[in-house]
Amino acid sequence: MARALRAFVSYRRRDTFMLGEVPGPGGPGPSTPPFIDRLKDALKSLGFKAVFIDTKEIRAGDYFEGRIYKAISNCDLFISLIGEDWLRLFDENKGKPDVLEREHAAAFELEKEIVPLLVGGAKMPSEQDLKDEEIQMLCHIDAKTVASTASVDEIVAVLQEAVGGLQGESKLGSWWTVGYVAAAFAVWIFCGVVPNAVGAREFGYDAWIGMATAWSGMFIWPLFFLPFILLALYRPLQILLEATFNAGSFTDRLTYSSPLWAGMLLATAMTVSEISVPQVPWTIHPNLLSTCSGPSDPGPASSPEAALQYQQDKERLASYTAGGALMQAYRNEFWMRGRCWPNVFFYLTVPMRDAPSDNDQPLGPQASAAAVEGLQSYAAARSEIQEAFWRMIAKGSKGFKGTDAPYSTLFPFYALAFFLMVWPLSAAIIMAIIYAAVSIRRPRDGKILKNPNEDAFLCLTYGFITLLVWVPFRMTTNSIKFSYYCADVVRGCGPIQETFNKDFAFGFALLVGYVALTVGLLWNHRRMLLGFVGTLAVSFIGGCALAAARYHRTLSQLTDYWQFWLAASGLTCLMLGALWYQYDPAIVRLRDLLDRPKRKRRG
């Protein structure tokens, strides 16, 4: 569980303890290592695997952001070595770029455990001595005193108390990063790649392009955009896991870990709901046409009468596009070209509406007589088609899940992929609630840490923007699926406004979560630019959702082409990539550190 500790040592190369003579065991001489080397050995004996001590002179402006900042951000302990000349050298550098000052500023900004070590009789500077507000907090930290001639064991004894708390604190090491990347990649493969591969193999490539398009929210969105969600969850999940492992009470552990177990329960409930009704793409009747692919039709085995009824039902369902008239009435959309597609019959047998809506559009004078006649004959036989369909998936029959209807091989992959995808999405939503309501405290002293909270706000705000991308995909999916929906013969079939209500509700809930996160980001962390950039992105996504609702007929024609989805997804991925550059916590903090000297000069 615990990882190896890392330390960063900040010191002046011209300080007294660095320049003075170091006595050997028998008197003055070079046999005893310099103090800085003894300190390094002491830290390693205390369990620090890596100790960063610059061995070369670092001049002001020497790629500080890369070398020094990375070392400080990765360290567990920041040791500030203060010798007798430390304050004099600090004053000499006033008004000049000072690497040591920026090291301390970075350590405070990153909320590192800081131990001032007074070497060779040095005194702790006061607030009046350190007029720079960025490092004045150094004066309020309990300092340790050590002689410049101290042995390794003596240095160990001095630092033991300060290091003790770190040694008992669980940290997720490099194995966590490797494990998370491997798990995230596996989730993406199973949710984004495997269902498409299985579907293309079962239904054929051309047919599956249309099927995946009709269910773009479940087959296209994960392929392109799930990786962005998994990227955004890395840091918040790490923070909560470390907080869970280090929590002092069972209640805290339960609270911190709630996104995982509550997300799992929610994902399980949603998956059971999703696969318990015939509204998902796995029911298939391959014997409706001899050319249909899919699993073999087991047929009923109860009685000759049942077998006859089963055969009649298949014939009734197979006749819904007789003569191609109905297909023409439906404007010859791609999703009408294959009667063997999973779930196609459900939407063909949704009961007609009792009254037409103003949003429904008539077939128009351009509709051919064959189209009108086909739609009329279908409307007349619709109730029989519906009954035939429901008999084939009746709860009282003997097949899988209480139905004789054979199931596509896509079914188990879809069900598991749905669970695996909904789990992290649910966890992200619950984590947003946790970070907005719960403070993360340092286990050894109870100090409230602002950086973990800000990191989580940054990542989850970005994650919610990515989640909102799902809304236009869901709306386009529903506009295609419910194009089967018939109001009456005159007005024809097509999606109505009510079909988008659930999507609007889903998008509104995500929008509320995004607003809450953004307000927290602005209120607690003053991230005005990020709030503005995110709002622009959300406004763009909202515009796409409204366009999907308003121009669904045009979109249903465009989505017939896989190039449309590739272009739309590619452009959206570029936008999300640019946004991540703005929301990545490491980049945000590095940018803050680099901008600090500019702000000081302007002030």
TrEMBL record:
Q: Which Gene3D superfamilies match?
A: Toll/interleukin-1 receptor homology (TIR) domain
What transmembrane ranges does the database entry give? Answer: 175-195, 207-233, 413-435, 456-473, 504-522, 529-549, 561-581
Per UniProt, residues of the TIR domain are 34-133
Write out the GO biological process terms: signal transduction
**Keywords (A to Z) from UniProt:** Membrane, Transmembrane, Transmembrane helix
Task: Please provide an example of a Pfam family that matches this protein in its UniProt record.
Answer: TIR_2
Keyword Membrane on entry: yes
Q: What is the name of this protein?
A: TIR domain-containing protein
According to its UniProt entry, this protein's organism is Bradyrhizobium betae
Give the lineage: Bacteria, Pseudomonadati, Pseudomonadota, Alphaproteobacteria, Hyphomicrobiales
